[in-house]
C-alpha cells in the first residue's frame, strides 16, 4: 500500500505514475483505503463505484496532467453516465446516460472518477446536512459543519481521500466549504467553465463550477483542462494570456489590494476572523503589496433581497420542471425549505425578477469601479469559523410552517412581512462576503491561511477582475510558497 498517498497533491501523484514509480491501480487502492478508514466518520462520499474505476484503468485512462489521480464528483449538476444523480434530494432518482461537458473534460485530464460526494438538496443551503444522505462532518472537528454546498468535496480533500474534488458555486458553495475545511477553492469567472449540455447558465449566471484542491497548482492546471466555450453557452469570455498553471510559477507584480471588512449583510465579524484579516493585510504588505482599506459602493438593504428573488425564481421553475419530468411523487419528497422557496418564486412576477437583475447590475458596476483602481479585493471568506451541526438548517417548527404554507400563493406577503428575512438570516449572514462573487460573476478564491483560536480553519477571500484568474493564481501561489497554508485535518 502506498502509505505516502496523502502527502502529495494531484499533479505530484500523476508525476509518480508517469515516471513509472506507481500505477494508477495503486493510487486507486490508496484512495479506497483512505475512504474506508475515514468516511464512516465523515460521510463525505455518498456513492461509490470502485469496480468501475478499476475498469477505467484497464480500458485506459486519458493521457493528461492528472492521469491516474483518483477523483470525486459533487452529486449535483455533474452528470456521469450510468451513475445516479440525486442532487441531495429524496425525490430524485435520475440516472443520466451521458456525461456533462465538464465531466467529459475532467476525463480528458486523466483523472479516475470513483465516487460522488454529499451535498445539500439542490445546493440550496451552505451547510451539508441533507435529509436523504445525512450530515457531512468537518474533518477538523466532528460534529461541525463542512459548509456547503460542496461540503462533501471539501471534506474529502481536507481528510486526504483525494487531493482534488469537483464542486460548484452559486452563492459561495466552493469558497464557503473551502474556508471551513481549510482547502483552496476558486470560483472562476462567469462562463469560464461549461455547464452544458443541459444548461447554458444556471441561476441567471450566478453558478460556476470548478474544483477544491490541496494545492494552488492543481486548481490552475485543472482550469487549463476544463475551461473554454461550450456549444450553446451565452458567454464566450477572454482567454488567458498564457496557461493558468504558468501563472502559479511566477510571483505577481506589486499589487494594489483593496481591503474590505464590512459584510454585505447585517452581521458582525467573529473576532478570530477579524484578527485573521488584519494578519493577512500585514503579511501582504510584508510581501511588497499595497493594502488600502476601502468598501465597494453596494446598497446592502437591497443586496440580499435581489439575490434571494433570483434564486427563488429559479427554484420555482426547477420544481415545476421536475414535476413535469418525474411526477408529483418526486416533488412531494423535496425538503420543506425547497418547497417554500419554490412557492416564493412562483408568487413573484417577471417584473420582480427584472428588478432584481437590475440590482445585480448595480453590484457589478460598483465592483467594476473598485477594481479599476485596485488589482484585487481582500475580505474574509466567511464571517465566522465553522459552526456545529443544526445551527444553519431551519428548525422543525420553521419546517412545519413551510409545509403549511408552500401550496399558498403568499410569497410576496411573506417577503413584505420580514418573516422570510428572519428565517433565512442564519444562512444568508454566513454568505455576507461570498454572494458578491456570484452576482458580479467575478473570479474569487478562498485561500486557507489561518485558523481560529480553537483550531478551525479560516479562509481569506480574494476577488479579481473579470477574466483575470491569472492574477489570483499568481497571488495564491505566492502566499502558498511564502506563508504556507493551514494544516490539513489529521484524522
UniProtKB/TrEMBL annotation:
SUPFAM superfamilies reported in the protein's UniProt record: Amidase signature (AS) enzymes
One Pfam family hit: Amidase
InterPro entries xref list: Amidase (IPR000120), Amidase_CS (IPR020556), Amidase_dom (IPR023631), AS_sf (IPR036928)
Domain Amidase per the UniProt entry, residue ranges: 26-472
Family stated for the protein in its record: Belongs to the amidase family.
Protein's UniProt name: Amidase
Taxonomic path: Bacteria, Pseudomonadati, Pseudomonadota, Gammaproteobacteria, Cellvibrionales
Amino acid at each position: 500500500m502506498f502509505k505516502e498517498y496523502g502527502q502529495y497533491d494531484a499533479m505530484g501523484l500523476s508525476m509518480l505514475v508517469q515516471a513509472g514509480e506507481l500505477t494508477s491501480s495503486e493510487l486507486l487502492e490508496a484512495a479506497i483505503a483512505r475512504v474506508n478508514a475515514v468516511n464512516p466518520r465523515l460521510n463525505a462520499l455518498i456513492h461509490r463505484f470502485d469496480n468501475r474505476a478499476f475498469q477505467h484503468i484497464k480500458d485506459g485512462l486519458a493521457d493528461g496532467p492528472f492521469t491516474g489521480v483518483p477523483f470525486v464528483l459533487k452529486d449535483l449538476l455533474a452528470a456521469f453516465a450510468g451513475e445516479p444523480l440525486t442532487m441531495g434530494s429524496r425525490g430524485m432518482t435520475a440516472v443520466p446516460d451521458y456525461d456533462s461537458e465538464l465531466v467529459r473534460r475532467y476525463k480528458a485530464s486523466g483523472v479516475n472518477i470513483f465516487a460522488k460526494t454529499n451535498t445539500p438538496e439542490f445546493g440550496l443551503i451552505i451547510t451539508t446536512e441533507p435529509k436523504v444522505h445525512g450530515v457531512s462532518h468537518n474533518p477538523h472537528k466532528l460534529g461541525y459543519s463542512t459548509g456547503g454546498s460542496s461540503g462533501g468535496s471539501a471534506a474529502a480533500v481536507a481528510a486526504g481521500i483525494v487531493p482534488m474534488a469537483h464542486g460548484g458555486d452559486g452563492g459561495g458553495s466552493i469558497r464557503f466549504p473551502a474556508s471551513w475545511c481549510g482547502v483552496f477553492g476558486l470560483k472562476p469567472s462567469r462562463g469560464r467553465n461549461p455547464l452544458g449540455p443541459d444548461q447554458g447558465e444556471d441561476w441567471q449566471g450566478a453558478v460556476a463550477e470548478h474544483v477544491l484542491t490541496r494545492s494552488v497548482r492543481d486548481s490552475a492546471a485543472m482550469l487549463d483542462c476544463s475551461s473554454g466555450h461550450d456549444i450553446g453557452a451565452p458567454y464566450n469570455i477572454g482567454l488567458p494570456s498564457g496557461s493558468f498553471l504558468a501563472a502559479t510559477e511566477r510571483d505577481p507584480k506589486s499589487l494594489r489590494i483593496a481591503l474590505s471588512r464590512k459584510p454585505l449583510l447585517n452581521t458582525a465579524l467573529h473576532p478570530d476572523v477579524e484578527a485573521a484579516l488584519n494578519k493577512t493585510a500585514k503579511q501582504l504588505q510584508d510581501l511588497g503589496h499595497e493594502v488600502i482599506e476601502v468598501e465597494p459602493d453596494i446598497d446592502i438593504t437591497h443586496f440580499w433581497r435581489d439575490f434571494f428573488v433570483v434564486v427563488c425564481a429559479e427554484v420555482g421553475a426547477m420544481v415545476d420542471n421536475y414535476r413535469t419530468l418525474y411526477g408529483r411523487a418526486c416533488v412531494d419528497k423535496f425538503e420543506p425549505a425547497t418547497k417554500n422557496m419554490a412557492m416564493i418564486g412562483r408568487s413573484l412576477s417577471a417584473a420582480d425578477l427584472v428588478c432584481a437583475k437590475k440590482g445585480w447590475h448595480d453590484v457589478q458596476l460598483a465592483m467594476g469601479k473598485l477594481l479599476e483602481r485596485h488589482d484585487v479585493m481582500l475580505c474574509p471568506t466567511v464571517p465566522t469559523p465553522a459552526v456545529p451541526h443544526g445551527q444553519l438548517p431551519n428548525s422543525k417548527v420553521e419546517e412545519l410552517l413551510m409545509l403549511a404554507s408552500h401550496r399558498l400563493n403568499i410569497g410576496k406577503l411573506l417577503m413584505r412581512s420580514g418573516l422570510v428575512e428572519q428565517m433565512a438570516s442564519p444562512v444568508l449572514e454566513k454568505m455576507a462576503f461570498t454572494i458578491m462573487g456570484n452576482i458580479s460573476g467575478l473570479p474569487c478564491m478562498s485561500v486557507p491561511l489561518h485558523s481560529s483560536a480553537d483550531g478551525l480553519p479560516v479562509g481569506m477571500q480574494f476577488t479579481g477582475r473579470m477574466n483575470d484568474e491569472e492574477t489570483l493564481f499568481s497571488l495564491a501561489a505566492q502566499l502558498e510558497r511564502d506563508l504556507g497554508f493551514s494544516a490539513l485535518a489529521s484524522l
